[in-house]
Amino acid sequence: MSELQKSCYVCERIEIWRKGNNPHFIYEFENSIFVLGEHQYHRGYSLILLKSHVRELHELLPDVQTALFQEVMTATSAIVRTFRPWKMNHSCYGNAEPHIHWHLFPRYDSDPDHTRNPWLHASEFKDHVIDLAEARSMIGEIQHHLAENVSRTSKESYPETARRIES
């Protein structure tokens, strides 16, 4: 690991996952991992973490850009099917952590300031940290809907493979 990677919070989270110690892990995609956020100010808040240390989306090869976007959308669909939010917000800045990662924010009519930036109440996120039992429960629900999405996506994107799997 380079110095930048050693001090990269996202790389540290990926390393914890590689060792099998990330209790918020939901699913491994080809290019990323899907994890539940440690806080749940926005119920269902999750992240997509790129497995390799790359700072900018435009630095990815075009096929990886496309695949990563599909991974974000597959995760989003699982969140929507699980929690039924009013709206989904996505953010990928990399200013604070220079490693590609997406924040997936389910938004609800009941959220304070639900039509505004989801970071507006960031100072309150620490008050909504969940325990491991709640995390496991939420992860199980998301994984259930994710399995449906992955199966459906495979059938739509790769019909020949899906037919072979079914027979």
Key traits:
HIT family, subunit A; 42% helix; alpha+beta; globular; 167 residues; disordered C terminus; 16% strand; 5-stranded antiparallel sheet; 5 strands; single chain; 5 helices
Give an account of the 3D structure.
The chain is globular and about 40 Å long. The longest helix has 26 residues, at 132-157. It has one domain (3-166): HIT-like (HIT family, subunit A, 2-Layer Sandwich). A hairpin with a 3-residue loop joins strand 1 (25-28) and strand 2. It contains 5 helices and 5 strands. The chain has helices at 3-6, 9-18, 62-83, 132-157, 159-166; strands at 25-28, 32-36, 46-50, 87-91, 101-107. A 5-stranded antiparallel beta sheet has the order 1-2-3-5-4. Helix content is 42%, strand content 16%. It is of the alpha+beta class. Helix 3 crosses helix 4 (132-157).
Strands, helices and their partners?
Elements: H1 3-6, H2 9-18, E1 25-28, E2 32-36, E3 46-50, H3 62-83, E4 87-91, E5 101-107, H4 132-157, H5 159-166
Antiparallel strand pairs: 1-2, 2-3, 3-5, 4-5
The number of distinct helices, counting runs of at least 4 residues, comes to: 5
Unreliably modeled segments: 158-167
Largest sheet: 5 strands, antiparallel
Strand percent estimate: 15-25%
Rg, Å, rounded: 16 Å
Major sheet strand order? 1-2-3-5-4
Oligomeric state, counting identical vs distinct chains: single chain
The CATH topology name reads HIT family, subunit A
Integer tally of domains: 1
The averaged pLDDT comes out at 88
- By CATH reckoning, the class would read Alpha Beta
Number of strands: 5
Head-to-tail CA distance between termini: 44 Å
Class by alpha and beta content:
alpha+beta
CATH hierarchy: architecture: 2-Layer Sandwich
* CATH homologous superfamily assignment: HIT-like
* Element-level helix/strand string: HHEEEHEEHH
Q: What is the approximate shape?
A: globular
The portion of residues assigned to helices is 40-55%
